[in-house]
């Protein structure tokens, strides 16, 4: 930035200027300043360097995917492919594979258009067969990536055995290439097949823990954050909340160091959910408030809004103007359908008069209904898709 402030475009060789704008965009992207990143990349697109243009198109495609703008993401990856076809060098072929496999990811994981994903994969397979020296170590990373995307496709089609087979192949190619990052990615995806597909948490945990050991070789905190989240997911699904929280807190620390807002939002969501599932209402609501603050600071980023909505779907009354005891009572009602005043007294460790006040407040807010008379008075939960009050819980 300092350099660019002192030299305008006309005082530098054109391609040097465009390279500088590209790197300014890349640094902005890594800093999560996506608006600046897009502006810098678009400026650099005036370059006559074909490979730089393709690289910029692929970077822009990735940024728009993060913003859930899949149409624009596909447009840019398509522009990259149009520049590369036909290819004339190994470098161009590798970029063409990246463009094809990027579109496969969008179709199979984001848009769930599996026929289009399969068409692109078959095209990538055919291209790979045309390359001379296919067994050369140079092409092992491409083989690993291609197998990984086939694994993603079969996961989307719920063919978990075939998905696991391709992810294992991806891991083997990465191992032969001595590519630690790809080995981590393939092992991570294999864990995902076991955890979210087969619900075989023992095998999933084995894969994820292998990933953690490999991460020690890279020192990549973003990898470590993501893997700790997945380990926590497996533990949480088995009711091991304390163990899950240990991994989530580790993930939270790693994500803060990387300044990755997307990752941090996912982690805080899981922290809130895990605390609430464990009955730690105070900690759960504290995590929920952190999530809301992250969203406010980021001006309502789509993925943060989505995870907040997921919590609201599970706890429709979260974010309403109630205290933590009342929140605990509503969680109790989700499981037991009805509560009497004396049960609320025991649940929240308060006096009978205060219990009556707080239960009546829930009725006034439209969160509960009061039924019965005398000793038969009880309260039931009112099912609402959304609660009108949105103030943070006190």
Write the layout of secondary structure elements.
Blueprint: H1 2-6, H2 14-30, H3 34-44, H4 50-66, H5 70-84, H6 90-110, H7 114-130, H8 140-156, H9 160-176, H10 180-198, H11 201-218, H12 221-237, H13 241-258, H14 261-277, H15 281-297, H16 302-314, H17 324-336, E1 338-339, H18 341-348, H19 352-364, E2 368-371, E3 378-381
Antiparallel strand pairs: 1-3, 2-3
Folded structure, characterized:
This protein is an all-alpha fold and 394 residues long. It has helices spanning 2-6, 14-30, 34-44, 50-66, 70-84, 90-110, 114-130, 140-156, 160-176, 180-198, 201-218, 221-237, 241-258, 261-277, 281-297, 302-314, 324-336, 341-348, 352-364, and strands at residues 338-339, 368-371, 378-381. A three-stranded antiparallel β-sheet has the order 1-3-2. Helix 4 (50-66) packs parallel to helix 6 (90-110), helix 6 runs parallel beside helix 8 and helix 14 (261-277) packs antiparallel against helix 15 (281-297). The longest helix is centred in the first third of the chain and has 21 residues, at 90-110. It is elongated, with a radius of gyration of 26 Å. The model is unreliable at 385-394 (pLDDT under 50).
């Amino acid at each position: 930035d300092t350099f660019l402030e002192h030299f305008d475009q006309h005082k530098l060789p054109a391609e040097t200027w465009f390279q500088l704008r590209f790197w300014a965009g890349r640094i902005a992207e890594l800093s999560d300043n996506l608006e600046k990143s897009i502006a810098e990349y678009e400026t650099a697109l005036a370059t006559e360097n074909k490979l730089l243009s393709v690289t910029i198109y692929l970077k822009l495609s990735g940024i728009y995917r993060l913003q859930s703008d899949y149409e624009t993401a596909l447009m840019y990856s398509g522009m990259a492919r149009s520049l590369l076809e036909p290819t004339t060098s190994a470098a161009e072929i590798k970029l063409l594979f990246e463009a094809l496999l990027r579109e496969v990811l969008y179709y199979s994981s984001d848009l769930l258009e599996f026929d289009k994903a399969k068409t692109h994969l078959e095209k990538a397979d055919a291209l790979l067969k045309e390359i001379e020296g296919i067994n050369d170590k140079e092409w092992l990373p491409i083989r690993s990536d291609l197998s990984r995307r086939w694994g993603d496709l079969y996961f989307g089609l719920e063919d978990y055995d075939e998905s696991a087979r391709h992810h294992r192949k991806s891991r083997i190619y990465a191992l032969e290439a001595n590519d630690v990052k790809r080995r981590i990615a393939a092992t991570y995806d294999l864990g995902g097949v076991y955890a979210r597909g087969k619900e075989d948490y023992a095998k999933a945990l084995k894969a994820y823990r292998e990933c953690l050991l490999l991460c020690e070789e890279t020192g990549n905190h973003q990898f470590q954050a993501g893997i700790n989240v997945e380990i926590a997911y497996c533990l949480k699904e088995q009711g091991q909340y304390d163990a899950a929280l240990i991994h989530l807190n580790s993930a939270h620390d790693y994500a803060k160091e990387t300044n990755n807002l997307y990752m941090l939002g996912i982690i805080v969501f899981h922290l809130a959910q895990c605390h609430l599932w464990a009955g730690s209402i105070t900690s759960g609501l504290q995590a929920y408030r952190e999530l809301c603050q992250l969203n406010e600071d980021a001006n309502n980023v789509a993925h943060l809004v989505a995870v907040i909505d997921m919590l609201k779907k599970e706890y429709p009354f979260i974010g309403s103007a109630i205290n933590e005891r009342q929140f605990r009572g509503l969680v109790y009602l989700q499981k037991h359908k009805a509560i009497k005043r004396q049960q609320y007294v025991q649940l929240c460790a308060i006096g009978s008069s205060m219990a009556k006040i707080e239960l009546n407040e829930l009725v006034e807010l439209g969160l509960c209904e009061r039924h019965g008379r005398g000793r038969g008075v009880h309260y039931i939960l009112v099912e609402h898709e959304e609660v009108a009050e949105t103030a943070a819980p006190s």
